[in-house]
Design a protein that fits this description.
The chain is of the alpha+beta class. The protein contains four helices and eleven strands; from the N terminus they run βαααββββββββαββ. It is globular and about 45 Å long.
Length: 184
């Protein structure tokens, strides 16, 4: 099944003009799901991982995305993501679960679905996918795909449905701040 892919700037623009109820923060979500907090705090003993925080400016306002995903020894993937969009005094957000991770060197594709969102953006159950490239620390700028999956149902192993190169070809952006880490 192919899905509709939407550039992030368009999604964030739509998000920033739609009123919605406040989504739980990552801290609130971690309190509700203690395993999520442990995943962020633990860095050893598991398989591949990808995590990061990406900042970009859209029409003069800061937009952010944070995520973390790790493959467990049994092959299952656990993680979460949070998107915050700001526009003229608004701070809207959504939160989701990541259940697919594919790591190839310094690149990773991740996918999952929204758990908290309102009014047409971040609809509960909506599937999302993107890719990131870790360009190291210091002066290097991390890269990510400006691509999000706009399907309306979770799709198992969605991050493996598209080659990472295809995700970067469709939409490509550079982080204006933050850091991405990919570990094979």
């Amino acid at each position: 099944m192919r899905a509709l892919l939407v550039p992030t700037a368009l999604v964030l623009a739509a998000f920033s003009i739609v009123a919605c109820d406040e989504a739980p923060t990552a801290v609130e979500e971690s309190a509700a799901d203690p395993g999520s907090l442990a995943l962020v705090a633990s860095d050893g003993g598991s398989g591949p991982s990808a995590r990061g925080h990406i900042n970009l400016m859209f029409e003069g306002e800061l937009q952010t995305m944070s995520f973390h995903a790790r493959e467990a020894k049994d092959g299952s993937v656990r993680g979460s993501f949070e998107v915050l969009a700001r526009a003229e005094g608004w701070e809207l957000g959504m939160h989701g679960v990541l259940d697919c991770l594919y790591v190839d060197g310094d690149e990773a594709a991740v996918s999952g679905y929204v758990t908290h969102g309102k009014q047409g953006f971040g609809t509960e159950g909506q599937a999302w996918v993107w890719a990131v490239r870790d360009n190291g620390e210091g002066q290097a700028t991390d890269e990510w795909t400006d691509v999000l999956f706009a399907g309306f149902e979770p799709v198992p192993d969605l991050c493996r449905q598209f080659p990472i190169a295809e995700l970067f070809t469709f939409g490509h952006a550079y982080s204006e701040g933050g850091n991405v880490q990919v570990k094979p």
